[in-house]
Design goal:
Blueprint (H helix, E strand, L loop, with lengths): L1 H17 L4 H33 L8 H8 L1 H46 L3 H6 L2 H8 L1 H34 L1 H48 L1 H6 L3 H53 L5 H43 L8 H4 L13 E8 L8 E8 L4 E6 L5 H8 L11 E4 L2 E2 L5 H6 L1 E4 L10 H5 L8 H10 L3 H5 L18 H15 L3 E5 L7 H14 L4 E6 L10 E6 L2 E6 L1 H5 L4 H9 L2 H12 L9 H9 L3 H10 L1
Parallel strand pairs: 3-8, 3-9, 6-7, 7-8
Antiparallel strand pairs: 1-2, 1-4, 4-5, 9-10
Helix pairs in contact: 2-4, 2-7, 2-11, 4-7, 6-8, 7-8, 7-11, 8-10, 8-11, 10-11, 16-18
Length: 641
C-alpha cells in the first residue's frame, strides 16, 4: 500500500513538474470544461419546462409566461441554440488550452529526458538497449501526453458531470435516482478489474515494442554488416519473430478491451431499460410529470457514456501509469558525478591553468564484479611527452582511456588517477573532457556535412582552421576531390565514407579542438601504412606541446613514443622506449618481428630514431654488413670440400 501511495505521489509530482509554465492553460481548460458541463445540464431543464408548462396545457400554473411562450416557441428554441453555442465556445476554449498545456508538457518532458540521458554514465547505457531508450523517450512520452491532454481533463469533466446530473435527478425523483445510482458501483468494480488486467497486458506489450524497436535500430545501423555477410534472411526472420510476438500481445489486449466494452454495453442497456420501466410506472402513478421523465431520461443518457467511459479512462490511465514508470526510470537514474561544488561554481582548477601530466597509480578495474580488466596498472605520462600503449584484444588498452576521461568511474580503494597532480574525481567532468581530445577506433560521424562533422568540437571554427586540421590529418585532398567538397553529406554514421576516411575526419575534429591532452585509440587502424606514416609525421609536428597517448596494435605507430607500455591480460608486461624494448627478447620484439620485414624495420627505425637503428649503426652500415660475404662460412665450406 505504501509503495502504491509513493508511486501515485511520484506521478503527480512529475505532472506538476513538467506542467511548469502551462498550469494557467490547464486551469483555464478545466474551468471552461466545467462551464460547458453546467450549460449542457441546463438543456434538459428547458425541455422539461417546455413539455410541462407550455405544451401539456399547464399554462396557467406558469402564469402569463406559459401562454406567451406557447405563442412564441421560437424563444425556447433560441434558448436551446444559445446554450449550445455557449457550450461550444467553452468546449473550444477548453480544448485549445488543453492542447497548449499538453504540448508544452510533452516538450518539457522530452527536453528533460534528452538532457538527462546525455548525463547518464556509460554503465547505465551498457545495461539498457538503445531501442528501449528511444521507446521510452518517444512512444511513452506520447502516451503520457495523451493522458494529460485527454484523460486528465476527462477525469475532472466526468466527475463534475456525474455530480451535476445526480443533483438534478435527485431534485426531480429520488426513487429513479436511486435506481440509476445502483448501477454506478457495478460499473466502477468491473472497470477496476479490467483496469488491472489491462495494465499488466500493456506493460508486457510496451516492453515488446521496445524490443522490436531495438531490432529495427540494430538492423538499420548495421546494414553494411548484414549485406556483407548475407544475413538478410536471418534478420527478416528475427524481425518477424519479434513482430509476431508484439502483434499477439496487442491482439490479446484488444480482445480484453472488446470484452470490457461488450460488458459495458450490457450494463448500459440494463440501466436504460430500468429507467424506462420505473420511469413509466412513476409517470402513470403521477409521481413524476412527462417533462420530468423526459429530462430524467436525458440526464440518464448523459451519464451513460461518462460512466461507461470510466473504464476507458482507467484503461488509458493504466497505460499512462506504465509509461510514467518507464519514463521515471530514466529520470531517477543517477547522473555522472560532475566533481566538487566549488569547481561547478567557477573556481579555477589547476587543470585550467595548464598542468597536464597524467598519472595512474595501482589502478585495478573491471566492468563486472570479480572480472578485472586492469590489474595494478601504474605509469606516468609527463606533460608534453608521448606515451604508447601496445597490447592484444582485451588487454585493457581502451579501458585506460575510458577511465581517464571518466566514461567509467574508478571505484574507491582501487587505485588513483591524477591529471596535473589532482585526482580526476575532483575535476569537473565537463572541464576534464574539454581538455582531453579523443579519436576512437570506430569514430562516430553525424549525418551532416564533412565540414559540420569536423567543426563538431568547435562549432564556430573558421574554414581556414577546419582545412588546416584536415591537412594535418591527411584528408583535405580526399575531401576536395568530392563534388561538394566540405559540404558533402556523409550519410548516417558516415556510411558513404571508407573506414580510413572516417578515422581521418575524426582526427581532424579532435585536432581542431586543440586539447592539451590527445588520445589516439587505435585510430589509424583503417589506413594503409604509407598514410599512417604521413599522418604521424604531420601529427608529430603539430603535437609538440601536447601530452599524447597513442594506443595501437601497430608497432610502427608507437616507435616514436617517449615510452611504450606493453599490456598483457590487464597487466604491464614491459615498458620502455622502442630502442630499449627491441633489445629485449620480449612480447614487443616478437610483435615487431612478426609485423615487419628487415627492410621495413631498418627504414622505420631510422624514421623513429633520427638516423640510427636499434643496434646503434646507421642504415648504410647495416646495409654494408648485409652485402659483405661471411668469410667464416666460406672457409668452412672450402674446408669441407
Amino acid at each position: 500500500m505504501g509503495n502504491n501511495v509513493k508511486t501515485k505521489h511520484r506521478k503527480l509530482y512529475l505532472i506538476s513538474r513538467f506542467l511548469q509554465g502551462s498550469k494557467v492553460y490547464f486551469a483555464a481548460a478545466v474551468a471552461a470544461s466545467l462551464l460547458s458541463t453546467i450549460l449542457n445540464a441546463l438543456t434538459p431543464q428547458i425541455f422539461r419546462f417546455s413539455i410541462d408548462q407550455v405544451l401539456s396545457g399547464n399554462r396557467g400554473n406558469s402564469g402569463g409566461g406559459g401562454i406567451y411562450l406557447s405563442n412564441h416557441l421560437w424563444i425556447l428554441a433560441l434558448m436551446i441554440v444559445a446554450v449550445a453555442i455557449a457550450s461550444g465556445i467553452f468546449t473550444y476554449i477548453s480544448r485549445t488550452n488543453t492542447a497548449r498545456a499538453g504540448e508544452n508538457f510533452a516538450k518539457n518532458l522530452r527536453d528533460a529526458l534528452f538532457i538527462h540521458v546525455q548525463k547518464l554514465p556509460m554503465k547505465w547505457h551498457d545495461r539498457n538497449q538503445t531501442g528501449d531508450i528511444i521507446q521510452r523517450c518517444t512512444s511513452d512520452v506520447e502516451v503520457i501526453r495523451g493522458f494529460v491532454v485527454t484523460q486528465l481533463l476527462e477525469v475532472f469533466r466526468t466527475a463534475f458531470l456525474v455530480i451535476t446530473s445526480f443533483v438534478m435527478m435527485f431534485s426531480m425523483n429520488v426513487k429513479l435516482s436511486c435506481v440509476v445510482l445502483l448501477f454506478v458501483p457495478v460499473v466502477v468494480v468491473y472497470s477496476t478489474v479490467f483496469y488491472r488486467l489491462i495494465a499488466k497486458r500493456f506493460t508486457t506489450a510496451d516492453e515488446a515494442e521496445g524490443e522490436l524497436s531495438t531490432v529495427v535500430q540494430e538492423n538499420a545501423t548495421g546494414v553494411r554488416v548484414v549485406r556483407a555477410f548475407g544475413r538478410e534472411q536471418f534478420e527478416m526472420e528475427r524481425f518477424d519473430k519479434k513482430n509476431n510476438a508484439f502483434a499477439k500481445l496487442w491482439i490479446r489486449l484488444g480482445t480484453l478491451s472488446g470484452l470490457y466494452w461488450g460488458i459495458g454495453d450490457l450494463i448500459t442497456g440494463l440501466q436504460v431499460i430500468a429507467v424506462i420501466i420505473f420511469g413509466v410506472m412513476e409517470a402513470v402513478n403521477g409521481f413524476i410529470s412527462v417533462g420530468e421523465f423526459v429530462a430524467f431520461a436525458a440526464y440518464n443518457s448523459t451519464l451513460v457514456w461518462p460512466i461507461r467511459g470510466l473504464g476507458r479512462i482507467l484503461s488509458d490511465m493504466s497505460k499512462a501509469g506504465v509509461s510514467f514508470e518507464r519514463v521515471d526510470y530514466i529520470i531517477r537514474s543517477q547522473e555522472e558525478a560532475y566533481g566538487k561544488e566549488e569547481e561547478k561554481n567557477g573556481k579555477e582548477s589547476e587543470v585550467s591553468r595548464g598542468k597536464f601530466d597524467i598519472s595512474f597509480q595501482h589502478v585495478s578495474f573491471g566492468y563486472e564484479e570479480g572480472k578485472d580488466v586492469l590489474r595494478d596498472i601504474s605509469f606516468t605520462a609527463p606533460e608534453g611527452r608521448t606515451l604508447g600503449i601496445l597490447g592484444g584484444t582485451g588487454s585493457g588498452k581502451s579501458t585506460i582511456i575510458q577511465l581517464l576521461s571518466r566514461l567509467y568511474e574508478l571505484e574507491d580503494n582501487r587505485g588513483s588517477i591524477r591529471v596535473g597532480g589532482r585526482a580526476i574525481q575532483d575535476i569537473p567532468i565537463e572541464e576534464l573532457r574539454r581538455n582531453i581530445g579523443m579519436v576512437l577506433q570506430e569514430p562516430f560521424l553525424y549525418s551532416r556535412t564533412i565540414r559540420e562533422n569536423i567543426a563538431a568540437s568547435v562549432p564556430d571554427a573558421s574554414m581556414d582552421d577546419i582545412r588546416y586540421a584536415a591537412r594535418i590529418a591527411c584528408i583535405d585532398d580526399a575531401i576536395m576531390s568530392f563534388p561538394d567538397g566540405y559540404e558533402t553529406l556523409v550519410g548516417e554514421r558516415g556510411v558513404t565514407l571508407s573506414g580510413g576516411q572516417k578515422q581521418r575526419i575524426a582526427i581532424a575534429r579532435m585536432l581542431l579542438q586543440k586539447a592539451p591532452v590527445m588520445v589516439f585509440d587505435d585510430s589509424l587502424s583503417a589506413v594503409d601504412s604509407q598514410t599512417d606514416y604521413c599522418i604521424r609525421c604531420a601529427l608529430k609536428e603539430h603535437m609538440r606541446e601536447a601530452t599524447v597517448i597513442l594506443i595501437s596494435h601497430r608497432v610502427t605507430s608507437l616507435m616514436g613514443a617517449d615510452e611504450i607500455l606493453v599490456l598483457n591480460q590487464g597487466k604491464i608486461e614491459e615498458r620502455g622506449s622502442h630502442r630499449e624494448l627491441i633489445q629485449r627478447n620480449g612480447i614487443y620484439r616478437r610483435i615487431y618481428e612478426i609485423q615487419m620485414s628487415r627492410d621495413d624495420r631498418v627504414k622505420m627505425e631510422m624514421d623513429a630514431t633520427g638516423g640510427s637503428t636499434a643496434d646503434g649503426n646507421t642504415v648504410d652500415e647495416n646495409a654494408e654488413k648485409d652485402n659483405k660475404p661471411d668469410r667464416k662460412n666460406e672457409t668452412d665450406a672450402g674446408g669441407s670440400n
